[in-house]
Every structure is written in structure tokens, then in C-alpha cells.
Amino acid sequence: IKDAIYRGREDFVYRIALGPMPFVTSIFPLGGRAGAKTTVALQGWNLPSGGLTLDAQGRGPGIFTTPLLKGGRFTNRVPFALDTLPERMEIEPNNDKRKAQQVELPLIVNGRIDRPGDWDVFRFKGRAGDEIVAEVQARRLGSPLDSLLKLSDADGKLLTANDDYEDEGAGLTTHHADSHLGFKLPKDGTYLIHLGDTQYKGGQAYAYRLRIGPRRPDFELRVSPSSVNTGAGTNVPITVHALRRDGFSGDITLRLKNKAPGFKLSGGWIPTGQDKVRLTLAVPRVAQRRPIKLWLEGLAVIKGREVRRTAVPAEDMMQAFFYRHLVPAKDWIVSVTGSGRRGPAL
Predict the structure, then answer these.
(1) Are strands 252-256 and 119-126 parallel, antiparallel or unpaired?
(2) What's the whole-number mean pLDDT along residues 175-183?
(3) What b/e readout covers 54-65, taking b as 16+ CB neighbours within 10 angstroms?
(4) Mean pLDDT, residues 47-76 taken together
(5) Where is the Peptidase C-terminal archaeal/bacterial domain positioned along the sequence (predicted)?
(6) What is the topology classification, in CATH, of domain 218-339?
């Protein structure tokens, strides 16, 4: 065991688990429909044969991680994506424009780049002026796929392409290898989406989820730091990050969702086009007996409909003195201790 860039300090601690434990290296498909059951195939070590059914009843769209229970034993935690769009499986052969798989938008395709040099091609009909988005979820779900997306017309003429797309909500993902492209169709007709691995690799583990359809403007929020320790009566600086999706650029109003007594948010607004804002959180003048759990909510109007999103607490962490990651935490916790000084907390 060594550090990848040959560092070492007393706080570089680790734990190793050894033994004949069940361990999942990959699953297929990588996700399913929110509120439904999905049967997945497992790859790994010390796993019973046969598939496993994941029950997503009561869960909304998003990525969650869960240990899998098989034969009375829990595995390591595995990411699994949920969405509300129709789901289809990729059908081979679909390696070029002549054999492209016909799909109807919007949908999510679950597939694999199952051998080195493989391409999966999907055909759809579009109208002039349609704004189409194609997005791959693979590396964010534990797949080794380094995707490359291309959009072409029916004759194979390239219209646009994308290799890597940075997703600030991807936590500790160090290689943003998933692709995302958007394009306004120039005319009525047939179009093709081509998906491959940019390193020309492939195999059973190289799974993906491919969303194709109209833009879905939306946003997510991250609030940092994820935990605050401060004295009573102080004002604490916090940062809220807006992760804007599919072209959404509008205002976002921020507020405390649970109305905890004595807490007040100042400057609760992210202006149009801005991705980050610095706020202050005023805490009670009296020390609290136990840490308080807070929820921060963002409200925006998208296509005439009010959309609400709860902020995910996160730590803004730096990797290798350059790259930054918003690493999610479970809860946003504030601990208010003895008497504090008035003014900003450090």
C-alpha cells in the first residue's frame, strides 16, 4: 500500500478488511426506474449465483449507494441510479449506422461497451428546433467506461461530440469521464447517437446509462461546510453552490427549511447565472444542549413551475493542491457552544 503521489503523514490512516467476504465489482444495469423494482446481475468475489432484485419503492430520482444483501450477507456499498424516464436495454448488434437501434425519446438506455473498440449506435427522429440532450452515467456509477458521445445526421455527418463533462456533484470522482452534449436540431429527420470508449477499451464491466431527450432544466445545491462549531450569538459564513443542469440559469431563493428557533439566514439568494454565493448563518444567543440538524432549501421557477431542492451538505476539499471536490456528508449539523462573540465566526 502506498500513496499515489508518494506522500505520507501521521494522518494518512487506513483500514484493511481481509477474509472471504462478498465483494461486488460491478452490476448491470447501473440503475432503474424510480419507485419500481429492478433485477441486477452481479460481478465480484464470494457472491452467490443468480441476480438480485433492488426495490426502489418510495425513492425518488437520483444516485444512492447501498450495500446489497444476498444469502444473508451484506456486500460493499454500490451506487445505483434512479430516474423517472422510460428504460430500455441496448440490443446488439448496433455497432454502426446501418444497424443502429431505433429508440423513441425521451428514454434511458442501459447498455455495455462489451468489447474493445465496440460502438453502440441509436437512431431517433427529431424536428427542426428541438433541443436534444444526451448524457452518459457510467464513471459516476462505478463503471470503468471513459465514454465518448457523438451526434450525427442519418448519413453519419458529425454534428457535435463530447468526451469529458465535469459534474461538480460527483464527490470524490477524480476523472470526469462521463459525456454530456446538447444540440439544437437543424431540420426534421433522422439522427444518430454514437457511444464508445475513448480509450477503445471494453468488457462486461463497461456498463452505462444513456439519457436521450429534450433538455430538463434543473439544479442541485451543496452547502459547505457540512458541520459548524461556533459560539452562541455568532454569525457563521457558509457557501452555497448551485449545480445547474441542462441550461437552467435563473434565480434561486434560499431559506432554512426546518425553521429551527434562533437560526437565521442572511443573503439567501443566488442570482441568475451565478454558481456560488457566500451567506451568513446567525445562530441562537443561547448555547444548545446538543447539535442541531438543519436543512437548507432552494426555490426556483422553471418553465412556469416552482421547483424546490434540498441542499446536500458537503465539504469543499482540495486534491493534490489543485483539484477541488464537493464531498457530500449525511447531515448538516451545527453545534452552538458557550457564549460567543458577536460578529463573524472563524
Answers:
(1) unpaired
(2) 94
(3) bebeebeeebee
(4) 82
(5) 120-194
(6) Immunoglobulin-like (2.60.40)
At residue 199, the 3 state secondary structure works out as: coil
Cα→Cα distances 77→17, 74, 259, Å: 14, 9, 33
Q: How far apart are CA 305 and CA 309, in angstroms?
A: 13
Element holding 158 (H helix, E strand):
strand 158-162
Q: How far apart are CA 135 and CA 105, in angstroms?
A: 13
Q: Residue type for 4, please?
A: A
What is the bridge-based pairing of β-strands 73-83 and 31-33? parallel
For domain 87-214, which CATH number applies: 1.10.10.60, 2.60.120.380, 2.130.10.10, 3.90.550.10? 2.60.120.380
Q: Which residue has the cell 426555490?
A: 299
Report the pLDDT value the prediction gives residue 259, as an integer from 0 to 100: 77
- By C-alpha distance, which of 195, 161, 164 is closest to 177? 164
The strand pairing partners of 339, in sequence order, are: 232
- In 3D space, the residue among 135, 128, 130, 122 whose CA is nearest the CA of residue 162 turns out to be 135
Highest mean pLDDT range out of 4-18, 54-68, 102-116, 330-344?
102-116
Which segments within 185-291 are labelled E, that is strand?
189-197, 207-214, 218-224, 227-232, 235-245, 252-256, 264-266, 269-270, 276-282
- Domains of the chain by residue range: 23-83, 87-214, 218-339
Q: What percent of the chain has pLDDT over 90?
A: 76
